[in-house]
User: What shape does this take?
Amino acid sequence: MTDAPHTAARVLVAGIGNLFLSDDGFGPEAVRRLAAEGGLPPQVRVVDYGIRGMHLAYDLLDGYDALVLVDAYPGGGAPGEVTVLRIGPEDLGTGEFDAHGMNPVAVLANLDQLGGTLPLTFLVGCTPAGVEEGIGLSEAVGRAVPEAVQAVHTLVRQLVPAVPTTSVKSAELRRS
Assistant: This one.
C-alpha cells in the first residue's frame, strides 16, 4: 500500500470503466459497493464516472485536494490482484483527450488545458481477467472488489485523518 503523505480537505473517489466490457466494469462496481456501505467522511465524494471522461475533468476543476481512481489496471499481475499506486504528473505523459470516452491518463494529462491542476492522485486498480464484450465481472475480479473497497477506506483514513467516519451513509453515488 502506498502511503498518503498529505492530508486533504476534499477527496473525489472516481469509479472508471465500461460495464459492457466485463472486468473493465471493476471501477463502477467497486464504487457502487463503497457508496452502499457508507462510512466515509462528508468531505469524500464517490462518483461512478463509467466512461465519461469529460465529466471527471470538469468535476476536478471544483478544487479537490485528492483523487482516488478505481479502475481495471493491466499491471501484469494475476487476475483479481489489487494494486494501489500514487500517480504524479510525471507518470502521465500526454494523451489525446476524447470528450466522449474515458482514458484516465488523457483526462489527467490535459487537465491543465481546462485551467485545473492534478490533485494528489492514487489508483486502486485490479488486474482484469478479460475485457471482452459482456456484462459482469469475472470470478477473480469479483472477489477482489471488497479488497479494493478496503483499500479506498485506508487511503481516505490517510488523506482525511482528522475527520471521524460517520455511521450513516455519507458517500454519494451519482451517474450524471
Q: What stands out?
A: The domain at 11-159 is CATH 3.40.50.1450 (Rossmann fold). Strands lie at 11-16, 44-50, 66-72, 82-87, 120-126. The two ends are 31 Å apart (CA to CA). Residues 163-176 have pLDDT under 50 and may be disordered.
